Request: fold
Amino acid sequence: MTLSEFQQLVTNLAADGEKLIDAATTTTLLEDARTSLLGRKSGRLPELFKQLPSLAPTELREAGSLINAVKAKLETMLDDRRRQLEAASFSHRKVDLTMPGRRQWLGSRHPVTLVIDEIEEIFRELGFTIALGPEAETEWYNFTALNFPPDHPALDLHDTLYLGENVLLRTHTSPVQIRTMQKYKPPIRILSPGNCYRRDFFDASHAPMFAQIEGLAVDEGVSFVDLKATLTNFANRFFGKTKTRFRPSYFPFTEPSAEMDAQCGVCGGSGCPTCKGTGWIEILGSGMVHPAVLEAAGIDSERYTGWAFGMGPARIALSRAGIPDIRLFYDSDVRFLEQVAR
Ligand code: 2NL
Reply:
């Protein structure tokens, strides 16, 4: 091929390319133009590059600089046209710029935290304050002061996570109540939420770490009537007007002890899988503080009496939302959390 033949082909290509690029009215058409002009496989420009070896060696320099200049020009034209089309397509989009933006989900408090916050709010209105304490405790605060006999199975390495000699991860938030009774004189009305630990399998209904919320009221003349009235009021506030019942129970730290059930909100008491056919959902354990516990915490059990309760907010959140597996609360799966968020 002669130099002038080559120059003619390159000039034609430049002219055709300019027309093609100008004619492209969408970014898709522009991409087609780019492929037909510069496409590595069979674009017109790469095809011309392949012709270079057929020129005389003395003509190569001029031919090369010409084709490279056209290549650069086409690339610039393609880029300019792309910017033009993109700007036009944005300004022609039918958008109402006065519309409020779509709100992103920013996350929410954890479902268990939501239950704790709600319970705190109800008891706050009844004059309770929030008390917090350490999660690493001594055997004395976690067991001895709470009237556990030294050979109680809960003290065993199989049931409790020990950090060292005498130091363990608390198995309930009761140590906070003991510390509060040591530090303050009655009247005492406190609520202690927090995480507790036990050596247990992580299955559908158990977790080795779980939230507990306990309440304690100590004063002169406090009786089982106060316990029953306060906890019944709480159930009606938390679940909406509901039937409750108290069943006798046993804890080393309370005497007498009672468990409170609420009528199953899913079936209304007729029996369903959620309440395992009983019509009742277990809400909490409670009782009159054992005199030995008051004395251990330095409170005169002849002058003062008290009542206490403990419940698991995760259990309550499960039964309230009809969630089948407690592990869902700890997976941090946003698809689950979004569904129970508020
Ligand atoms: C449950 C229910 C309960 C308490 C916790 C308590 C705390 C002190 C004194 C007396 Cl300092 N009682 N807390 C009372 C009754 C029940 O928890 O199911 N626990 C395993």
Summary: The mean pLDDT is 91. The chain is about 40% helix and 20% strand. The two ends are 77 Å apart (CA to CA). The first strand starts at residue 129 and ends at 130.
